[in-house]
């Protein structure tokens, strides 16, 4: 699925093996499931962990009693970024790298998992599934979104944007947004975690570069927790279109829909 293009991020054994396991296990459990992964894996190289996917949802009950979990499999697409922010990973950055698994239901980001392999003792897994719930097994309490989202009140407005893929368009966008602080940090998943942790208010990446596997899981979790992600023109990202995988109009996300509206209008001025 990866384009051969100049400046593309590096690929490591970690990217390839993570996708072998995730895609292999999902394919084993659901042979007809549509899976779009960043790395091209030969099915002969699939690895399986047969019960891993079931454990996460043990004991989780739908929050809407009327909800029917039976959806046609053809309406579901799973987007896998086995390792987001590989460029940061090879530099030894332990926070930005994350495994992203997004579940789209028709065009919408419906569920997601963000796993930071180097957080805490065994990594941190944050997940959400619309109509079911969300969870965060982070062992570091101060960073647990369930605790901090309601508590964080900052005087300064904080923007988070790309560290390695900036451009004149991005720099112009930063000026237009006029936020107090700009953080330049790698990783699509990690930038959304910074919104959820209360570190930042807005994530803006107004140029092409991310693909649907970068945004599906983060968008689902952000939406579930009251935030909003669109492209940088304010249009929804259509996850049912599995042919055009580039987020050509960029990414624009905020911790609440009000902030999304407020800063998107500044960006469009
Ligand atoms: P960034 O905000 O630049 O850290 O980008 C977030 C993630 O999106 C990266 O870790 C990549 O997976 C992907 N991405 C963004 N821009 C590009 C690009 N120009 N080429 C390849 N991948 C990109
Ligand atoms: Mg990525
Ligand atoms: Mg990747």
List keywords for this structure.
single chain; 269 residues; alpha/beta; Fructose-1,6-Bisphosphatase, Chain A, domain 1; D-Maltodextrin-Binding Protein, domain 2; 2 domains; five-stranded mixed β-sheet; 11 strands; binds adenosine monophosphate; binds magnesium ion
Could you describe the 3D structure shown?
With 269 residues, this protein is an alpha/beta fold. It has 2 domains: 124 residues, Fructose-1,6-Bisphosphatase, subunit A, domain 1 (Fructose-1,6-Bisphosphatase, Chain A, domain 1, 2-Layer Sandwich), CATH 3.30.540; 123 residues, 3-Layer(aba) Sandwich (D-Maltodextrin-Binding Protein, domain 2). It is 28% helix and 22% strand. It has a 6-stranded mixed sheet. A 5-stranded mixed sheet has the order 8-7-9-11-10, with helices on both faces. Strand 3 and strand 4 form a beta hairpin. Helix 5 crosses helix 8. The longest helix has 17 residues. The protein is globular, with a radius of gyration of 18 Å. About 2% of the residues have low confidence. The structure holds adenosine monophosphate and magnesium ion (MG) (2 copies). The site of one magnesium ion has 6 residues, from strand 2.
Question: What kind of oligomer do you see?
Answer: single chain
User: What is the fold named in CATH at topology level of the largest domain?
Assistant: Fructose-1,6-Bisphosphatase, Chain A, domain 1
CATH level 1 name of the largest domain: Alpha Beta
* CATH architectural category of the largest domain: 2-Layer Sandwich
CATH superfamily of the largest domain: Fructose-1,6-Bisphosphatase, subunit A, domain 1
Calculate Rg over CA atoms: 18 Å
**Count of individual helical segments:** 8
What is the strand content? Answer: 15-25%
């Amino acid at each position: 699925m990866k384009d051969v293009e100049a400046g593309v991020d590096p690929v490591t054994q970690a990217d390839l093996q993570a996708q072998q396991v995730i895609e292999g296990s999902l394919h084993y459990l659901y042979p007809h499931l549509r899976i779009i992964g960043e790395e091209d894996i030969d099915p002969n190289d699939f690895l399986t962990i047969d019960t891993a996917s079931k454990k996460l949802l043990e004991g989780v009950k739908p929050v809407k009693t009327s909800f029917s979990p039976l959806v046609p499999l053809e309406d579901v697409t799973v987007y896998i970024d086995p390792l987001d922010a590989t460029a940061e990973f090879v530099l030894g950055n332990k926070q930005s790298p994350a495994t992203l698994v997004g579940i789209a239901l028709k065009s919408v980001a419906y569920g997601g998992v963000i796993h930071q392999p180097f957080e805490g003792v065994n990594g941190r897994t944050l997940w959400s599934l619309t109509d079911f719930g969300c969870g965060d097994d982070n062992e570091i309490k101060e960073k647990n979104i369930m605790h901090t989202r309601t508590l964080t009140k900052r005087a300064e407005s904080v923007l988070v944007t790309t560290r390695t893929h900036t451009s004149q368009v991005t720099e112009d966008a930063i000026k237009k947004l006029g936020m107090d602080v700009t953080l330049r940090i790698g990783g699509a998943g990690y930038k959304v975690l910074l919104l959820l942790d209360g570190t930042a208010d807005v994530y803006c990446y107004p140029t092409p570069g991310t693909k649907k596997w970068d945004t599906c899981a983060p968008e689902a979790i952000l939406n579930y927790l009251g935030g909003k992600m669109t492209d940088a023109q304010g249009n929804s990202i259509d996850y049912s279109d599995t042919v055009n995988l580039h987020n050509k109009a960029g990414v624009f996300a905020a911790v609440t829909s009000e902030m999304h509206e407020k800063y998107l209008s500044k960006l469009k001025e």
